[in-house]
């Protein structure tokens, strides 16, 4: 039969274990969130396409992979652009019925904003918001090592906030 909890009495032996009080600082101090932290959770998979491929090929890849953008690279892996759903929709509006056979290189964004794994996540988020784009290739030592999206940033931050709320709740409850 299980025993019930009984609070300590005056004559009980004191525990030799040392306890430390919790504080706001010990419960909320955390390291700065970086792009690398997001990639640890998400992984470094990046879907690429060549500049000479067609928009039809790109659309198929986007649909099959359930993603919103493709990084455009040369055969040797050099970053030359990015093609997003938004780029394709704009081109469809400009050239209805003639878009799918066009080359990726004629429709991609050429000036691609990139980040590195060490970049601060808040700063990357601000850059994406200011530039009104949702996908950013991650480069390390001149090589593509991942892709971060605004959704990744939001999900990471929501998880952080849930964790912080739980820590504060534990601090309050004890």
Automatic annotation (TrEMBL):
The annotated regions of Polar residues compositional bias extend over 18-27
Annotated signal sequence range? none
Entry-linked PROSITE patterns: CBS
Which keywords label this protein? CBS domain
Lineage, top-rank taxon, reads Bacteria
Q: Where is this region: Disordered?
A: 1-27
Q: Domain named CBS: which ranges? A: 40-99, 108-166
For this entry, the protein name equals CBS domain-containing protein
């Amino acid at each position: 039969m299980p025993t019930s909890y009984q609070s300590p009495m005056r004559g009980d032996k004191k525990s030799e274990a040392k306890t430390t009080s919790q504080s706001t600082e010990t419960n909320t101090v955390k390291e700065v969130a970086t792009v690398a932290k997001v990639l640890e959770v998400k992984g470094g998979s990046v879907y690429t396409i060549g500049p000479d491929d067609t928009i039809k090929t790109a659309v198929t890849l986007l649909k099959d992979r359930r993603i919103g953008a493709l990084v455009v690279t040369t055969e040797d892996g050099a970053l030359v652009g990015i093609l997003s759903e938004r780029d394709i929709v704009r081109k469809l509006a400009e050239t209805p019925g003639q878009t799918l056979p066009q080359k990726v290189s004629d429709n991609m964004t050429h000036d691609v904003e990139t980040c590195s794994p060490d970049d601060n996540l808040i700063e990357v988020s601000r850059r994406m918001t200011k530039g009104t784009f949702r996908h950013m290739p991650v480069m390390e030592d001149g090589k593509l090592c991942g892709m971060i999206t605004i959704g990744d940033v939001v999900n990471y931050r929501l998880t952080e906030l849930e964790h912080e709320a739980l820590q504060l709740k534990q601090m309050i409850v004890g």
